[in-house]
Amino acid sequence: MSFKNVVYLPMLAFAALLLFSGVSSADDFAGLKEAKVVWNVTTGSEKVFLDRMDLIQQTADSLRKRGIKPVFVVVIHGPAAKFVAKDLHGTKFAKDKLPKLAKAHSSLESLKRKGTHIEVCAIAMKRAKIKHDNVRPYAVIEDNVFENLIALQAKGYAYMPVH
């Protein structure tokens, strides 16, 4: 056996180990009855927002198929606050072009119908000039969602950033 073979065989074995260690197995989900997750949504991009709401829904559906109850909270603040506004006139986002805003609303409404709790930050709303009566009914207005993020993580919710 040459020196090259002695060096390459352990490297090949290590590479194989790394490759297959990331594969999800049934053990990852063994005994799991519910999955508590807080999704921290700050993106102002309509395209990214719609994609991530779809991925959140896919994740919830997949967990349900595995017999795991998704306990999801979507926390919305920063530029993402525009996606819970009924109307953007008079807000900081009045000039934004959001041709799929109705789709964003229906995505959030669908998540809510399937059990996801949706919160929006009053501080973000104030900064964006979104009045309380201009918030879609699926969203609960919270004083400061940073506090909610802290509380939910302290209660064992996994933290998932959506930027």
Summarize the structure.
The protein has 163 residues and is an alpha/beta fold. Helices cover 42% and strands 18% of the residues.
Supply the number of helical segments. 5
User: What Rg, in angstroms, do the CA atoms define?
Assistant: 21 Å
Question: How many E strands?
Answer: 5
What is the makeup of the main sheet? 5 strands, parallel
Which percent bin holds the helix content?
40-55%
Which blocks of ≥5 consecutive residues have pLDDT under 50?
A: none
- DSSP strand (E) fraction? 15-25%
End-to-end gap: 52 Å
Describe the protein's architecture and organization.
The protein has helices at 3-21, 46-65, 101-113, 122-128, 145-154, and strands spanning 34-41, 69-76, 117-121, 139-142, 158-162. It is of the alpha/beta class. Strands 4-3-2-1-5 form a five-stranded parallel sheet, with helices on both faces. Strand 1, helix 2 and strand 2 (69-76) form a beta-alpha-beta unit. The protein starts with a helix and ends with a strand.
